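ugh ok so i messed up the first submission bc i forgot one of the chains. this is the corrected input, ALL of the components this time, i swear. 715 residues overall. if the numbers dont match what u have on ur side tell me asap before i send this to the collaborators (the ones from the other lab, u know who)
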Amino acid sequence: MSSVEEISNPVAENLEEDGVEEENTVEEAEMEYEEPVKGGYIFYRDRKEWADLEPVPQDDGPNPVVKIAYSEKCNKSSDCFGLQKGTKSVQVTCILHESVVFDVCRHYRRVLLQALDKDLREEMKYITAIIEDQPKNYQVWHHRRMVVEWLNDPSEELQFVAEILSQDAKNYHAWQHRQWVMQEYKLWDGELEYVEELLEEDVRNNSAWNQRHFVISHTSGYSDSAILEREVQYTLKQIKKAPHNESAWNYLNGILQDGGLSSYPGLLEQVTELQDTCSSPYLTAFLVDLYEDALETNSSSYDQQETLNKALELCKLLAEEKDTIRREYWNYVSRSLQNTYGSGDPVASSSDPPPPSSSQQPDTEPSDP
Amino acid sequence: CLSLLSESDDGNFILQGTQVKDVVIKPEAPNTLLLDKHADYIAAYGSKKDDYEYTLSEYLRMSGIYWGLTVMDLMGQLSRMNREEIIEFIKSCQHDCGGISASTGHDPHLLYTLSAVQILSLYDSINVIDVDKVVDYVKGLQQEDGSFAGDKWGEIDTRFSFCAVATLALLGKLDVINMDKAVGFVLSCMNFDGGFGCRPGSESHAGQIYCCTGFLSITGQLHQVNADLLGWWLCERQLPSGGLNGRPEKLPDVCYSWWVLASLKIIGRIHWIDKAKLRSFILACQDEETGGFADRPGDMVDPFHTLFGVAGLSLLGDEQIKPVNPVFCMPEDVLQRIGLQPDLLN
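and heres the new structure output, hopefully the right one now
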């Protein structure tokens, strides 16, 4: 396919540029000096070493429809310059800042970066500006990671990600990048403090809770009882601030899974105490989990029958009053507990899944009661 | 109790100062399924090839075509699409390395390779491309640790693990990869809450969970999932409006009607969702004038959300729509023709 060869050929490539100031409109092939964009990125046409080069007419390229659309709709200028440097010609196109553009051009950009031995620090400034503009694009973050790897320099990364997170504290890509940097370069110091700051700002930030788990798992771990106790108390404190907080309850459950909820000293008492002032479906659900753990481990600190009754009572409360949208789930838990730990006949329901069959049609799904 | 309501930019009401981040569905929102309007919307989409939004989405065109064709097939309207033009287009997108790009002249990627294979499966025309080379391309993207890169530049994500096995399963060539390592990598992305992220340690996210449960279904490893724990996490995505979000404390979005619901179906716990409430949320996301579905009521529609709204309704049992396979997001009858029946838990 000829278009494939054309793209791979370093001659007649397109390099994507950052946007220009809105008030400038530039006619095609006319050189004009623009202000550098934020982050200190300088257009090629502003660089002294490129100043003596003659522009060449724009090549139509593989997708003329795309280019026409850009130049019509672009509310910033769409400058097209062709520059020749040595035996390679680099076509520099300034186009509207859209995530699509980076996705299309990233290949050319990387091939050129490698082939022309471009200054990677400049590339870092470029990708910083692009990410600030398009923080939810997969490709721009991966590109940044590649530049960091090529430079082998993570020194700006945590600060940069923190800036992006200050605009959107749950940006999934930003968190992935942060985790990669920390693991790759062993930059764990100060992260717990950073997570706590974020949780101060928004105690319901699930990404921050996940990060807390990530940091501790990769540093001290949870097996030290002092650390575990610290985390339990920290989480209970956050729950008191905002009781209806799924993330905090998930975290509490998660860190105590291995040891078992019912055997953790003082936990039942502390959670029960919260019931008056900090009640929520999550608290009630947590108690159900705790009672279930007591039953499963046949804990001697718990009266088995009484514990089962309490658990069933809470499931009923959730199904009928506190969390009715998930009544099917709570009825399932109730039946499972009855069947496993009850002394009577097994309990079934019309909404139990049918016995295993090879058919996967939706009409074999049980109907709602 | 509900206290403050404020209006968001798109005219939805958002609950503030209460405990739940959600939208409120207005009484005048659509509450019946407007299938004909959606078929007309998709049939017309992309007919004006100089449309701005259409042009800007060229970088994902192959997936866009897959979304459009699949939803049309689910509605029994596949014949309205231009089969010959699409097949020629796909042929022009296969590169020498075997991989397939989003559009002519773009670079190959696993995402668009899967979309292309899905489209050709819908059209029972898989042999218009070089299948052996596709298999080589996918195999070549597997890394030492079992993960898959999306393309030669090396981005790793469990989405790509799913794309790899789904592609190979549709081609009947799952045996070419290192299965144990592939499974090992996906399982290493399982989190303390039972969910999955894009890489080990990444936050659980419904989209990634769909990819991982789909992966484990295709590879026959669903027994490794903690179905009760994950099922609970997934049914917690349902908000008072009936809509589903993708992770805690985020707004509902109709595409999660697919990612969450399909995952629940795969692990045998779809009945843990309040179906009536979800259905009313999905229907409210329709646009009565233009056809199509938006991410939430009142927003702009697009083919992506249209597919996942319709597919979600199919999973909920709507009889006007063909049954959809929860692993591949393709009509069940297509998979039956191919002879693919991925495991589902009971």
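quick check: DSSP finds 15 helices and three strands in chain A. that seems consistent at least. Residues 1-40, 54-100, 355-369 of chain A have pLDDT under 50 and may be disordered.
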